[in-house]
Amino acid sequence: MYYFTYDPWVGKQLYLEEFYVMDEYRGKKEKCFYTTPVSPSHNLLLHTPVCALSPPRPGLGIGSEILRQLSDLAMKTRCTGMMFVVAENNEPSVQFYKRRGAEDLSQEEGWRLYRFDKSSLVKMATPSEE
Length: 130
Fold this sequence. Notes:
By secondary structure, this protein is an alpha+beta fold. It is built from four helices and seven strands. The strands form three sheets. A three-stranded mixed sheet has the order 1-2-7, covered by helices on one side. A two-stranded antiparallel ribbon has the order 3-6. Strands 4-5 form a two-stranded antiparallel sheet.
């Protein structure tokens, strides 16, 4: 669901992977408690949600609670921000994040998301014969 990255300009960042709250769980607040086993040999933090559903409260649902928990984790682990991607045509998610203060870097700073697929990686990793 998330991992840590490092940006040389701004420092440690929490990178949030896409998540989806199924319709039947929307508008319900979920209390999540995270256990944190730490592997000293690999310096890994592993977080496992243990959740219990409580009565519905519009506007303070599971998605908001997930962001609250992850924001708290980011602050406790000294992150300077949280990064994520949202599909352009997913307007409900865009608005969900913007209401919480997210900045659209593709508009604000001109960043574009790119990807190398596996065949491109293989091609780049293979020494060229000259």
